[in-house]
Amino acid sequence: MPRIQAASVAEHHARQRRALLDAARALLAETEQAPSMAAIGRRAGLARSSVYQYFASAEDLLAAVVADVFPTWAGQVLERVAAAPTPGTRIWAYVVANVDLFASSEQAVARALSRVVEPRVLQGPMEEFHAQLQGPLRQALTEFGEPEPETMAELIDSLIVRASQDVGATARTQARKTADITLARLRRLLGPYLGLGPQD
């Protein structure tokens, strides 16, 4: 039995499971393909047989990755929204955080999951992700004085997705530069509406 380097067996198991999820996520980002259980085990420093102690199959492990990544992505966006001081800057923080996600390695993870995981596994987490983000965005739009916050929130999301398509199609080495160009375009569109100054 491997030596337990944790305060308890439960904590040890939690760490091992975390290591497997992180390994799978890293391999998805690097290859955009479904990694094998053996490859995930090697990345996490565990034998292939040990991986099966935590997940019955590769499908189960990828479903666990789906359940893990969407709340993480939502948390990254919402943390930046919450830190902005005014309704207008919260709306803009939402835009920036989403474009930054498109420019990060997490976009490769998202592309890979959309290819290797069944749609039924993705549907629930994706809907929850959207709902988590829409609430604070609509609240910020309401506080900003927008008379149609729900419609405007959907329009902003559509703009982000459309404007960020170039980011997702760009080589990783150029993704940050493309994201900055995308944000400049969105600022030209939304800046007057939000009343953004040069330092906002």
Task: For the structure shown, list the relevant keywords.
200 residues, DNA-binding, TetR family transcriptional regulator, Homeodomain-like_sf, HTH-type_TetR-like_transc_reg, HTH_TetR
Explain what you see.
With 200 residues, this protein is mainly alpha-helical. It has helices at residues 9-31, 37-44, 48-51, 58-83, 87-103, 106-116, 119-144, 149-168, 172-194. Helix 4 (58-83) runs parallel beside helix 7. The protein is elongated and about 60 Å long. 28% of the residues are buried. The mean pLDDT is 91.
Cα radius of gyration in angstroms: 20 Å
Distance between the terminal alpha carbons, to the nearest Å? 55 Å
Strand content: under 5%
Average per-residue pLDDT, rounded, comes to 91
Provide the low-confidence segments as ranges.
Answer: none
How would you describe the shape?
elongated
Secondary structure tally: strands: 0
Number of helices: 9
Report the major sheet. Answer: none
Helix content: over 70%
Structural class comes to mainly alpha
Order of helices and strands: HHHHHHHHH
Organism: Micromonospora gifhornensis
InterPro entries: Homeodomain-like_sf (IPR009057), HTH-type_TetR-like_transc_reg (IPR050109), HTH_TetR (IPR001647)
Keywords: DNA-binding
Pfam families: TetR_N (PF00440)
